[in-house]
Amino acid sequence: LAAGCTDQSVRDTGAEKDGVSGQHASAHPLSVIPLPEDIAYEAGKPFQVTNAWRIGGHNETVTAFKRIMENSPFDFQPDTTDTPEILFQLAETGLGYEGYKLEARDGKITVEADAAAGLYYGAVTLWQILTPLNGTEVVTLTPMTITDRPRFGWRGLMLDEGRHFQGEDFVKRMLDWMSLHKFNRFQWHLVDDQGWRLEIKKYPELTAKGAWRVPAGAASRANIDPETGEPKKIGGFYTQEQIRDIVAYAAERHIMIIPEIGLPGHSQAPTAVYPQFGMFDAPRAVSADWGIFKDTYNLEDHTFAYLEDVLREVMDLFPSPYVHIGGDEVQKDLWANDPRTQELMADKGIKDVEEIQSYFTRHFDGFLNEHGRTLIGWDEILEGGDIHQSSIVMSWRGEAGGIEAAKEGHEVIMSPWPMMYLDMHQSLSTREPTGRPDRTSLVPLKRLYDYDPVPNELTPDQVALIKGAQGNIWTEHMRTNDHVMHMTFPRASAIAETVWSRRDKDFDGFVGRLPAQLARYDSLGIRYADVAFEVQA
Ligand code: TNX
To answer: Catalysed reaction(s) (predicted)?
Structure first.
């Protein structure tokens, strides 16, 4: 185990089972994931936390803590006196808005933080302390002080709902679970070639038609709807009302939702519905296949006006200061061979097709800035050159794009393939469900855990531009909620530790703390991948 996390959370039964006694006897780790910055154990009598304890202080956190504890053996009641055993309070801690201090001694636990976010994370840590492996409704604690704050401000997961729509209930559960790992950014991939998932009032066909596709193999009889005689379509979308509700739900859990509206590529669904914005003359369908397609937006003024309209509604729905515009895998062939595009390029002063991508990026960066927002894009937005300094680069084709961006002074989020790609298999087990066909790039827990988002070659100023890191859940091969859970957990625990804990965290310590975390997963209904433990590369 890592030095700071040697276990002192002594449980009575644990001590007996180990055949030893005394406060340092039982080797149950505190099992806090992500590992806190510092845990200092103190001399003094161990004490018991029981169900008779009451919670008080900062109202919002009391409510949140009660909710978090619902899946535990404890049912603490809110305090009606001035002396709750568990107290959450705002106070100057100097630990930043997400940091907190947790003190446990003399039959009392106090969590202090500068802001509500810090108190929330203190509550999450306390939930973990009170749910050790084989925990019961009585937990014995050694006096201690935990001082904690995150290493990075951007601790993200991305969910691709363009490929497979997972739905509101599942997204809310994901947000719950993310917050229990102290993640604070949810990038919502709502648009792709295979589906448009977000109601836009001005363009109702985007969801009426663009949210539905005829799945591959639809010609088989099983796929024919007996009532209409037509192939059954699959898909789904969120109404604006649902979006607002989910955004508020996330905010209560201190998670910012960043919408991703992909452009100019990955746009087969919207341009199939509104071909006047695309490059194809012949009618196209919402894609039922995976890969990279030629569909892009065109350079017509009405296309930019449409995209601005869409982004206006998007900004109205999402208070996030960031909007992700995609920008990845843009196929330039149709632009290159189209006389009308050459004409429009000449009008707009675009010299070659490579520059079309950066033209889009600059245009929408400017548009978003006018509305007080900042653009994020995948690392291809660096192609074509000359994008605004304020654009943030998400590095996915390895770290090269992120390194280049930091050297050019852009802020960066690291989410390199294959490490941070949760569609990669995690083992060679025959019990792995189908995933991205590439089995040569396994991402077992250890490989992911050992990834560090700060490349050695950067100067301190450039390192400061690395906002954090993100795991991406691409869902081409994940049709069901269960499948998404399998690919995401327990790997999300490893990512959480990478983005929250100190750089010198260690894998063995993490593995020691994992069993209690998996037991929590069970009580939360998270169907994690147990195959993760079959092969450790
Ligand atoms: C590349 S990552 C993509 C996605 C795919 C993913 C599959 C990125 C910006 N583009 O469209 O879903 O690979 O792993």
So the answer is: Hydrolysis of terminal non-reducing N-acetyl-D-hexosamine residues in N-acetyl-beta-D-hexosaminides
